[in-house]
C-alpha cells in the first residue's frame, strides 16, 4: 500500500511530529519556508522525499531511509551532504542550487542513475567512476 502526503507550496517553517506516519511512501514539501525537519528517520518506507526550494541548512538522519529511491533537495542552503552511502536504492539525487562544499557516500550508490549537482560550491567529486 502506497501513501503520499503533499504539503508543497505553503508557508511551513518547521516540520515536526511526522514520525507517526510510518507507512508513508512519498512526502512532498517543496516550496515552503522549512529550515528544519525532524522525525524523518522513522519513515523507513519512504521512497520519494521532495524538500526542494526551502531554507534547509542541514539535513540529518537520511541514512535511516533505506528504501529511498528519489531525493530532491535542490534550492536550499545545504553545505554538507553526509552518510549517503546507506541509501542503496537511491536512483535520483537532486541537490542543485545549494551551498554544498562536501559530499560523502556517493561512491556507494550503485543504483544512482541521475545526479543533479549544478550551482554549488563543490570543488571535487571522488570515486564516482563505478557509477558512471
UniProtKB/TrEMBL annotation:
Keywords: Leucine-rich repeat, Nucleus, Repeat. It is found in: Nucleus. SMART domains: LRR_SD22, LRR_TYP. PROSITE patterns: LRR. The keyword Protein transport does not apply. The keyword GTP-binding does not apply. GO terms for cellular component: nucleus. Belongs to the SDS22 family. This is L domain-like protein. It comes from Rozella allomycis (strain CSF55).
